Amino acid sequence: MTNRLNGSRRSGVAPFIAMDVMRDATALERQEGRRIIHLEVGQPSTQAPQVVRDAAARALASDRLGYTDALGTPALRERIARYYADRHGIDLAPERVVVTPGSSGGFILAFLACFDPGARVAISEPGYPAYRNILLALGLEPVGISVGAETRWSLTPELIEEAERRHGRIAGVLVASPANPTGTMLTPEALAVLSQACARQGRWFISDEIYHGISFGAETATALASSDDALVVNSFSKYYCMTGWRLGWVVVPERLVRPIERLAQNLFIAPSSIAQAAGVVAFDATEELDANVAVYAANRKLLLDALPEAGLARFAPADGAFYLYADVSTLTNDSAGFCHRMLHEAGVAATPGLDFDPLNGATTVRFSFAGATADMEEAVVRLKRWLA
Predict the structure, then answer these.
(1) For position 5, what pLDDT does the model report?
(2) What is the average per-residue pLDDT within 46-65?
(3) Phi/psi at 331 (nearest 5 deg)?
(4) Other CB atoms within 10 Å distance of the CB of residue 372
(5) Considering the entire predicted model, what is its pTM?
(6) Residues 141, 121: contact at Cβ < 8 Å?
(7) Domains in the chain, please, with CATH?
(8) CA–CA gap between residue 319 and residue 184 (Å, rounded)
(9) Do 318 and 308 contact (CB within 8 A), yes or no?
(10) What pLDDT, on the 0 to 100 scale, is given for residue 1?
């Protein structure tokens, strides 16, 4: 008789609850034929831009679609560098651009290149759950720092220093602006203060900028404007509507390019060649993409105006991205159970705050307004009826 083998400890990370909700919602649609309103996942409802699809079709018809350089094709790395010149006025060497299999691949490469096992990395809570879970799976220690209205849902140098006094040396800091789940943005000045404080204190600074392009009046800033040592992660998933293409990038200090190349060669070999061919032209589709952002803005206004009538009246400042992070404390102290009932009884899928904040997320829910406006209208009707 053989001993039963079990999975590793590092595989015991928490689930990505938003994906679990999507799975359950899809099962209801498939098994019961119900129409579910999907507000659980941060995924644009529109296709990738036409020029992107056309470029992919040309590549499929004419290209061998073999491996590319591990760091990405020269054409895409050069085009990404030009994006920073066009949008932010930054002269960026294409050699510092690393093309990755989605932003998730970028975070894995950044964490492995910057941190030794056991290193502590500060993240905000609420925050994107995969930060915490990827860090844990890689043998690193996420240090969750609670943020709220008093700091406009953002980390500050003071909060990081206090966390270091309590937990020990913090080797790196990860921030997102616009943030998931709150949608809150750091001002350019606040982002510069954070990145420069990390540089002075010998900490790596990683800036998640995957929602750049989706903002509602506030200015988006890149950490590259204030620090050459920052690592900046971006993606084609959100603004460019290319979630399933699994394509992103990281801008890294020059001294990390070769270490990350070695890691990328061994972990991923190369990013998707067809996605890279399409990604080159994605930057030329701003008219179509900005029209999508106008839809998000309309959806945001609709929900902010209508959800209070359903009893949901308190939200984090939704400066960008396509999320509302709602306080549901007057309705429940069990956001997981609340979202389960909302899905099964009202046919509206949303993500419990516990996905983003294990300590304080039992009284919050994240709603994504990345879908069609008609879906937002239907969601409001269903929620008003359900919560009446």
Answers:
(1) 85
(2) 95
(3) -110, -30
(4) 14
(5) 0.95
(6) yes
(7) 14-43+286-387 (3.40.640.10), 50-282 (3.40.640.10)
(8) 5
(9) no
(10) 52
